[in-house]
Hints:
It is a single chain. The mean pLDDT is 85. This protein is mainly alpha-helical. Helix 5 packs antiparallel against helix 6 (154-170). It has one domain (2-310): Na+/H+ antiporter like fold (Up-down Bundle), CATH 1.20.1530.20. Helix content is 82%, strand content 0%. The chain starts with a helix and ends with a helix. The chain is globular.
Amino acid sequence: MNSLVLTSLLPVILLISAGFAAARLGRVRETAVKDLSNLVFLLLTPALLFQTMSHVHLEQLDFKPVAAYFVAVGLLFGSTFLLQGFNRRAAVLALAATYSNTVMIGIALVSLVYGPAGLVTLLTLVAVHSLVLLTSATVMLELAVAREQLPGAATRHALTTALHALKNSILHPVTLPLLLGLLFAQTGWQLPPAIQTPLELMAKAFSPMALMLVGVTLAFTRVGVHWRAALVLAGVKNILHPLLVFALCLWMGVSGLPMAVMVAAAALPMGANVFLFSQRYGVAQELITASVAVSTALSVLTLTLALMLVS
């Protein structure tokens, strides 16, 4: 089984390496990264999510593994605030310790390692992952900001911001096609071939494009002087998070493929949204940039170990 895991991971490593090499050799320029990211995130991702969920019926979805995942997230979130105090930095670090790159790396990895059944399990998590984590982080950050500026208005201000974040999380290139695909599946209808064929082609293009883009992004990311702190934060995300999910899955009676997918999702590196939050609120920007790079590079090893653990 260990050799099967390594064989499944090898295409992932090679595709990331190909993107990294292309950037280092000057075949892909840094100015093109944003356009490539938009192509993958705004076109290929929605096509894959809709195409996958358009064949899934509600009775196939199991939310128990997702519950185990979010219990682990809640424990890490709470622990970060206990250690750091209630402030903007703590909120950003808590998000960094729990927010996985479930789309750009996770979907490609799980699709290659666990196939369609594993992908449905992961997409059940993806459907609520950003919705829960980004909304929670927004509330905490806005509460911290309001507390610093005007303590009496903190709760009201945070509630307004949370509702706005909730709306944005639903009207999103990830959440919206997932929900639309799931709703379409319940109708029993079939898409005409003229629409279905392009969707399938874009869905198949997602994994190689997304993984090569990860390599390209790594090639242009500088870690700098923050590598020690970044290594600690990446260790929490890549090692402690999946171990906690693994323990909670055992405790809650989650096993087999659902447990394997949840542990793999927890072992994924930090998502880029963490950096966007640190930029928006002006907190630990250099540390988060370094942590995302270190976490992504470290994930080649930690994901291999995590998949062996649950194999």
